[in-house]
Amino acid sequence: MLTRIKTQQIFSATDTKDDCLVSFGSYRGSKYESTATDAFRTSGETIGNKCLIQSKWMRVAQHQVQTLDNNHNQEMKVIDDWLWIDYHDRINVLVQDPDSSLDNPSFLILKQTKYALSSQESLAVVGGIIEPGEEAVEAAKREVDEELHVTCNSWTPLGTYRTDVNRGMGWVHPFLARDCNYSKQVKSSAEQNAGVRESNSDVGEPDTEEQNIQSMTLSEVKASVMSQQFVEVQWSNTVALAMLHLA
């Protein structure tokens, strides 16, 4: 028996169209639907998926989810208005300074502002979107080369993490990159700090953002992540995992 809550619009499970109510461009990233392989569907099964708004960056959808109703004798219920955000998977990388040694490492850290941080500055690591058809480590290597002009010989994957377990927002793949070298002629500090481009031709035109590149010792990075100077959760997660790996 089904219990329906917050009933609004019922979607057909066989409706495969992706005609959004509002569209600013075509979203080409992955689109999530839960198959609820557990016997009791406790995690929820997607039985409807209607696109509300999309751009090349993301897709906001209204999912219809069937799940177990623990308050009604293990009956099934349907939630008709589960808002979900499909977003491109991303990488974040803590990069060792090529001028430091493996025994006494320093790391290249960015200091920058972001739209959601208002005027607040934050320490950051290299990050970017995984383009369609690209592996996470390939995206990580590309972003490190583009942003820092650095190539690294040692790559440690630090896991794969869902951004929001209820609303989606893609997956994040953090990495620790060590044994690094400058890949091309190094720009002057003034040129490096004038702005670094995040290039992703498939997803959108490059954005220019103001950010300073600085070298920080291992102890300085540890102190900074503990004192909440990496304000965005993806950055702090990457740095904290790397610190645990190096401990």
Strand content: 35-45%
Per DSSP, the total helix count is 4
Which structural class is indicated by helix and strand composition? alpha+beta
Number of strands: 15
Low-pLDDT parts are 1-16, 187-201
Order of helices and strands: EEEEEEEEEHEEEHEEEHH
**Biggest beta-sheet profile:** 8 strands, mixed
Q: What is the end-to-end distance?
A: 53 Å
Measured as a percent range, the helix fraction is 10-25%
Radius of gyration, in Å, reads: 21 Å
General shape:
elongated
What is the mean predicted local confidence, pLDDT? Answer: 84
Relevant terms:
alpha+beta, five-stranded mixed sheet, elongated, single chain, 15 strands, 247 residues, eight-stranded mixed sheet
Question: Could you give a quick summary of the protein structure above?
Answer:
The protein is built from four helices and 15 strands.
Structural write-up:
By secondary structure, the protein is of the alpha+beta class. It contains four helices and 15 strands. It has helices at 136-148, 189-192, 218-226, 233-246, and strands at residues 2-5, 22-23, 45-54, 58-69, 75-87, 90-96, 106-113, 121-124, 126-129, 150-157, 161-164, 168-182, 196-200, 204-209, 211-217. Strands 6, 7, 8, 9, 10, 11, 12 and 15 form an eight-stranded mixed sheet that branches. A five-stranded mixed sheet has the order 1-5-4-3-2, with no helix packed on it. A two-stranded antiparallel ribbon has the order 13-14. β11 (161-164) and β12 (168-182) form a beta hairpin. α3 (218-226) packs across α4 (233-246). The model is unreliable at 1-16 and 187-201 (pLDDT under 50).
